[in-house]
Design brief:
The chain has helices at 7-17, 88-95, 129-141, 159-162, 180-184, 205-218, and strands at 20-30, 33-39, 52-56, 62-66, 69-71, 76-82, 101-103, 119-124, 145-152, 168-172, 198-204, 223-229. By secondary structure, the protein is of the alpha/beta class. The strands form three sheets. The protein has a five-stranded antiparallel beta sheet. It has a five-stranded parallel beta sheet with strand order 10-9-8-11-12, with helices on both faces. A two-stranded antiparallel sheet has the order 3-4. Helix 4 (159-162) links the parallel strand 9 (145-152) and strand 10 (168-172). The protein binds flavin-adenine dinucleotide. Flavin-adenine dinucleotide (FAD) binds at residues 52, 63-66, 79-82, 84, 86-90, 109, 126-127, 130, 226, 228-236.
């Protein structure tokens, strides 16, 4: 996706891209994870499970964020974001205050949820918590079997629980998911009844690539993977 466009085109697009939403509430879950609740007229927006919106984070730059929760009647959307401090998007969202307005597009993306599949396995990191929150109620309501695996910084290891997620395994973010040998040893591969599950991999590109490579050798189910960020790369 294009993460940078000239300001004058951005200004023109602003009218058609989506509504200006207002920051209603900010919850600081840890020093590096925030949940922001926005409010505005979202009645014309279409939502898909785990869809991501584009936020205008400077005059010229745009970044992707997953809609973790929405309520069309109340005009509410929520985003959970990682305050990593390295980029304009993270800095912009971190600077927002209650009452500020923000440009958030209609969410889009491929629907990763297949109601026909009984078991769903979701892997990611801090950037994937919004996706997990979007999918969790659907998985639960439709009585799927599901498991979340997250690689998280030490200070964020309790966030899945704070968010009310269930069936979660947290791993330290120590590059284990970049090692094929370590990924091979994950408990999921010892559960033979999970080999035909749907696998949704998001978060760090290198972790996903390694995980996907190992999964392809081992499972029969479908793999959906989408890198959310890559070391040294702006605006993935
Ligand atoms: C479909 C999709 C959905 C996404 N949903 C979310 C979401 O709900 N919440 C969320 O927080 N992010 C989400 N992301 C990831 C987010 O768009 C990226 O992290 C983006 O790079 C952040 O922009 P930035 O301006 O802060 O950093 P950039 O300017 O893009 O990057 C600057 C530097 O920061 C590094 N960097 C970027 N992200 C991280 C990170 N998470 N941790 C450490 N270093 C990083 C880059 O490698 C680069 O070196 C999503 C991405 C995609 C593609």
């Amino acid at each position: 996706m294009i993460s940078k466009i000239p300001k004058w085109i951005g200004d023109l697009l602003e009218k058609s891209i989506g509504p200006n939403l207002t920051v209603l509430e900010i919850v600081k879950l840890t020093p590096s994870i925030k949940k922001i609740r926005f409010q505005g007229d979202i009645s014309k927006m279409k939502f898909i499970p785990g869809g991501a919106s584009v936020a205008r984070v400077s005059d010229t730059e745009y970044r992707n964020y997953t809609i973790a929760y929405y309520n069309i009647e109340k005009g509410i959307v929520e985003i959970i974001f990682h305050v990593h401090g390295n980029g304009v998007g993270s800095q912009y969202l971190d600077s927002l205050k209650v009452g500020d307005s923000a440009l958030i597009s209609e969410p889009r993306g491929r629907n990763q949820y297949n109601p026909e599949v009984k078991q769903h396995f979701i892997f990611g990191d801090e950037t994937s918590l919004g996706l997990a929150c979007a999918l969790f109620p659907i998985l639960k309501q439709n009585q799927h079997q599901f498991q979340f695996y997250f690689e998280l910084d030490e200070e964020n290891k309790n966030v899945p629980e704070l968010l009310g997620l269930e069936n979660v395994t947290v791993f330290p973010k120590d590059d284990s998911f970049k090692s094929e040998k370590k990924v091979n040893g994950l408990p999921i591969f010892y559960a033979t009844d999970w080999l035909s599950a749907n696998y949704i991999l998001t978060g760090n590109v290198k972790s996903i690539q390694t995980f996907r490579k190992v999964l392809k050798r081992k499972i029969t189910g479908k793999i959906f993977s989408q890198g959310y960020w890559l070391e040294g790369k702006k605006g993935l």
